[in-house]
Specification:
This protein is an alpha+beta fold. Helix content is 23%, strand content 26%.
Length: 110
């Protein structure tokens, strides 16, 4: 498998027709540099599709995922990028509310 040490989410939507070269240019524009063993996530405006660009140290890999029902929970706000933990990434690609993982990890009495 491809080693990914850090995962970054781009808050602004991107056209899903973008290929690896355009996504790589967007990574450099938003993040300043494409780091080896880092993954960069992008979504379309409707939040139904995501693309992951990974720089493995030798080249770039691009993967896509589409939800048939529902939308990916995406970051909103003025921050152009956001770091994700492995658990947040796993929840995000399943369409779960990854921003709420800390509060969902325990059950308390109301």
């Amino acid at each position: 498998m491809i080693r990914i040490d850090a995962m970054w989410l781009s808050a602004e939507p991107i056209d899903m027709r973008a290929g690896t070269e355009r996504l790589l240019a967007r990574v450099v524009q938003v993040f300043g540099v494409a780091q080896a063993h880092h993954g960069y996530l992008f979504a379309n405006a409707r939040g139904t599709r995501i693309k992951l660009l990974v720089h493995d140290g030798f080249g770039v890999w691009c993967a896509a995922r589409r939800l048939n029902v529902g939308r990916f929970v995406w970051a909103a706000g003025s921050t152009p990028s956001l770091a994700l933990t492995a658990a947040q990434f796993d929840a995000l690609v399943l369409g779960l509310p990854w921003q709420r993982l800390p509060e969902l990890s325990s059950i308390t009495r109301a």
